[in-house]
Design brief:
Elements (H helix, E strand, L loop, with lengths): L1 H24 L4 H19 L2 H7 L15 H21 L4 H24 L9 H23 L11 H26 L4 H30 L11
Helix pairs in contact: 1-2, 1-8, 2-4, 4-5, 4-6, 5-6, 6-7, 7-8
Length: 235
Amino acid sequence: MQSFRFLVYLLEAVAAVAGFYYLLKKPENKPVRNFVYFLLFTFFIETIGHIPLIIYRNESLYFLKNTFLGNNYWLFNPYLILNFLVYVSFFKWNLSRKHFVKILNISLSVYLLVTVLNLLFTDVFFVTNSALTYLGGTLLLLVAIFMYYYELLTSSRILEIKREVSFYISVGALFFYLIVSPVFIYFRYFNTQSPGFVQLSTYIMIAANIFMYTCFTFGFILCSRKKNLSSLYTL
């Protein structure tokens, strides 16, 4: 199990490196540049997120077990909000229809307000991962991806789909959140009652991560070799 988790951690780093390689070839792609920076930030957050595991495995650090360092909810709850803001914004930047962009701008503002208030005025911040943040963000991300697909299907961009790195990112993200979201919902109820479910859900999440970061890496490498597109990005 630990070897698979390390593989996910390694693939995160590989995806970020592949992203920077893409930027060396196409530095003018601002949406992708922001996304690659976020991948690097994600790797940094995941590194810090291992602190509780280090504490539990090191007896000399047991005195930290009952402190805020004993879990990483305080770290990943704010990160999840930022995660969905970045992903949705990435696909928004790849849209040309102004009404789509406007819908996503309003939705992002509401999402940010509601999720921050939820962390501030409930006890979820240090206790568990926020279901509101995760499920609301997933729904918003799926809407953004389907808007992106709609524009691809109704424009000449569909003919150059293999050249769009955003397409590979969308495939990885769509697969990941469609697979992981149901697991996230049920995990909250069965994590203490069914060790078998916990193990199965862990394998599913690891596999979903591997697929997503592999898609990112493949897209960065493949599209870095293609000629630039005259794409329209709405910022």
